[in-house]
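ERR on first pass: missing label on line 2. Operator R.T. fixed the label and resubmitted. Corrected input:
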Amino acid sequence: MTSELDIFVGNTTLIDEDGLWVGGTVSDAVALRVRSGILEQTGATAAVLQSDTMDHYRTFHMLERLLHAPPKLLHQLIFQIPPSRQALLIERYYAFDEAFVREVLGKKLSKGTKKDLDDISPKTGITLKSCRRQFDNFKRVFKVVEEMRGSLVDNIQQHFLLSDRLARDYAAIVFFANNRFETGKKKLQYLSFGDFAFCAELMIQNWTLGAVGEAPTDPDSQMDDMDMDLDKEFLQDLKELKVLVADKDLLDLHKSLVCTALRGKLGVFSEMEANFKNLSRGLVNVAAKLTHNKDVRDLFVDLVEKFVEPCRSDHWPLNDVRLFLNQYSASVHSLDGFRHQALWDRYMGTLRGCLLRLYHD
Amino acid sequence: MPGKLKVKIVAGRHLPVMDRASDLTDAFVEVKFGNTTFKTDVYLKSLNPQWNSEWFKFEVDDEDLQDEPLQITVLDHDTYSANDAIGKVYIDIDPLLYSEAATVISGWFPIYDTIHGIRGEINVVVKVDLFNDLNRFRQSSCGVKFFCTTSIPKCYRAVIIHGFVEELVVNEDPEYQWIDRIRTPRASNEARQRLISLMSGELQRKIGLKVLEMRGNAVVGYLQCFDLEGESGLVVRAIGTACTLDKLSSPAAFLPACNSPSKDMKEIPFNEDPNPNTHSSGPSTPLKNQTYSFSPSKSYSRQSSSSDTDLSLTPKTGMGSGSAGKEGGPFKALLRQQTQSALEQREFPFFTLTAFPPGFLVHVGGVVSARSVKLLDRIHNPDEPETRDAWWAEIRQEIKSHAKALGCHAVVGYSESTSICEEVCILSASGTAAVLNPRFLQDGTVEGCLEQRLEENLPIGCGFCHIPYDELNMPFPAHLTYCYNCRKQKVPDVLFTTIDLPTDAAVIGKGCLIQARLCRLKKKAQAEANATAISNLLPFMEYEVHTQLMNKLKLKGMNALFGLRIQITVGENMLMGLASATGVYLAALPTPGGIQIAGKTPNDGSYEQHISHMQKKINDTIAKNKELYEINPPEISEEIIGSPIPEPRQRSRLLRSQSESSDEVTELDLSHGKKDAFVLEIDDTDAMEDVHSLLTDVPPPSGFYSCNTEIMPGINNWTSEIQMFTSVRVIRLSSLNLTNQALNKNFNDLCENLLKSLYFKLRSMIPCCLCHVNFTVSLPEDELIQVTVTAVAITFDKNQALQTTKTHVEKSLQRASTDNEELLQFPLELCSDSLPSHPFPPAKAVTVEKASPMGEGNFRNRSAPPCANSTVGVVKMTPLSFIPGAKITKYLGIINMFFIRETTSLREEGGVSGFLHAFIAEVFAMVRAHVAALGGNAVVSYIMKQCVFMENPNKNQAQCLINVSGDAVVFVRESDLEVVPTQQPTANCQPLCTEGEVTT
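pass 2 clean. output:
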């Protein structure tokens, strides 16, 4: 006796909470469910579980087309799904694995990268099917919001109906992919997706066109996307900060201001004093180099090399880093010869936040 | 020209891409009704076109309005080649033809293509202006309401239940016409869909005419079926129960409805009713109607005074007492007489209802069924489908005579079905023989008051169990005892019925789904030989199905079956029998004895041991089941009952017969002769298998209950979550070891596994009950068995479910409060008295709560489902006639839809499972869309009548036909009623008030 056909269709479409259908094969999912002890809990047989899993996969297969444009899921008539379940479906479908996103973060979402998925899958232990789904999700979101004006997070939320949390993550992914930040270098391996997403959010808030709130006067000439591209003018202006390290007097004055303020407050004061010029040079040079696309991509590599690693080798505690960065940014205001206070704040404000986040083991 | 149909095409959305080059579509719409077609403009390059058309107006006869569907075709404009069809929408405009239903159809309809499925949606508005037609000889029957619900619809009151209406129309099946060879599958499917739509329209119109002839205004329990007879044609047939209904919430409609019949009575006597006794049975009864607290309205009294035949019947009261000397005997005899007189003029005193107004059902005799094997031949003259008519007439006649033999004059819970394989067709009919209270059958309003009184003298909750037949002249060997409830009347030891459990029935414990499953191999044969072979097998199948049912019932420790449905399916090389019913323990019936096993070879020690082992297992199972279903009847000492219960014997309430094409009728005695029925003799391995199979049925996991009736005895606190579903399974039998035994096992496993799967899938709803579980078996091919199940899972409140013991008084009060019907007849005090103890679906009690000043807050507040900003309104679907936790405020019309889906890329669509899964989901979607467009939010009494699936995997093809029906309704959540008291409750108060004015 073999089952030729075996289906269950509810007036209300049943959506499995575990959401195993998003990745892997039916047999993987069945095996996972067996391991979860569901058979013992419910007294069901393996055949029942198999049949149920197949139903979920079929349902998902039919729903997948709609999930590509979640608002369609809300308007379609074929599946009656309670709103809470719709949200669950979308959330599960657009969920991604930390391990996977770290592999592709900052990479161009192109066919080339898609080919790499064959290698990423065994490396991360995530099924190829799941890798593809996640990659396609990134790419789809990117394509839809790429040309749009306005807040990146809002756009993503509106077109993909994601939760706030997930929409922010996607904004980061899109932002990284657009600016192609290098995240795969060995020395960056210690950083989590969360670290990068945090930085991305700060950068979107402060370093993009949208951040300044400048509505482009002529929409045709303004090809840059408000939230996705860094403000070119701002990057250009950052060159002006060079004076902080190029002008020796200014550098010395800056150092003495910081040292005076922090004396006795820092556990690593002597290390700081010895390293001040190096650190300051590092941070200012990173800013000055951002006019080149290549250097923009290496932003995180540079930050780690020029700041995180030196501090870490001297065993600065996080709190000392915070005190130092605060003082380092604030003291500039007391430098009378320095005229780019606003620029400095826009740069350092974000950078300080990023560095503090990046500073861990 | 009595009608103007107006259609407006508003917009489309989610259209498929028809032009690959631009990834867009140039869509326009054709609107067709009858032979008239209108077109919209082409809306260029859009997947979401906004046509916003003018009103297309069709001026048509109302006959056409009833028959024809509105056909909307969406096409892609192509300048150089033929326009491509995107898909179609068929809209049945029937709901717009009666005043109380929908007034406008407006909404998004899925655009359906038989090859591609749903392809986008279209927004349409449809209206009908009807002109009054005074032509007496008209062919239309606009205004007759149709209900699939097999009880009196919730917001109506039955004034008269007229009786059986039936009709059938036949045609050639387009799939088998010569033209089918040259047209596309799409064209062929569409021709078929359109034809069936036309035929069902015509059928409904013809039935409507019959109802008007009977002076009714509605058909309740309308069941329409298709017989796909292949080469020989296509038969669409329908049965139903004609009624005169009053809407409860509209006093305006109420008064004329009362007045007109009485006027008519004087002027035109019923044509088919020469007997003057019929509308005067009331006064002839010995009791006076003054005792009843309800004062008759003006219209009533006028009617009774106008009737001058009152006295003519009085002597008959005396005659009645002759037949039975026991207490209540005269009444019974009298009732029988009245019913007889009321029913005798009818050709077939059948009722498709399964639940009845209180007091309607007096006694139940048992199940009556008839089957007949016919050879199909081409229907030569479709306009005169005499052979098919004759076939059914023959079967109905048989049913009628079976009912007579049981001392009953009517058959309730009546249904008909067919099973076709090649040119052989089995026609089946079954129902429950019953004695009815005549007050509903004629202009019964006068008697209504009286009988009501009479009925109250009857013991509540057991009356229907009392035997209707003569004790001394029993139609079959039966074993009778005095009723365990009232101790006055005789009852049988087991009762089988096709109806729902009466709401006032006294039941102990909970019920459960009981199924008998059986397969029989048969040699492949042609024509006559095949028909003969089938006819010969049928009696054995019926016998075995019956034995299985009886044994399983005993095993459950129960004594009655409700909702019994026996389906016999014919295939090329086998016959399948599947019987489903809900077992219950009726308090009025005696406790069932156990099952005893007896071995044939007594001197074999190990064998004996084995037997005793089995016996122990059976006894354990019975004990376990009693505990599971909470069956603990009060102990009654034998002396009180008077007559000791002798050796238990199995008896049959099942009178059946079948006739083959040659009209030969075989009667089969299912009572096992003198054999002791509870004893299972194990004389060979077959019998052993049977016993084993008895024990293999596993009970549902804890927290689950199941039944195939509307309501589950013992559970009465439903919460609002419902999930209707359809599940289909097809298994392929390995052709090697096809023995009856292997076949039985396969079939049994198929059904059991299917149930297990359902329990697993619905586990999140625990505690819940699967209600109206409806299994259908078909044999699409030689080695394929297809089982389709439709049911609804309803959650209930576990804590309150524990209080299951209820006194009969409570039950009857509960009945009073649950049924709107009674609101009008009971004085208000009674209604409010009943309030504190109404544990049953509070949905139905809403009116009471609202109307009575004592509507105290024993209202359970249901948590409304989270309905956030979803743009598509939720439409509930249920095979039941009610929605738990809600009140149905309006019936919008019948939904009767037929779809064909075909594919030539089966693998690409996910194989047979993927194909059918998608199709059923689409069917649900289209039903929901139609209901929503009518302004409704639910379908009740939903049924999937047909699901014919054919596959040809070698050609990568499959085809499926689905026919569904139900009643579109508007319901209001109980909790919403509380919050917004302005809407419905005020309207509900009115009939009460108005009636009060009339009476004073």
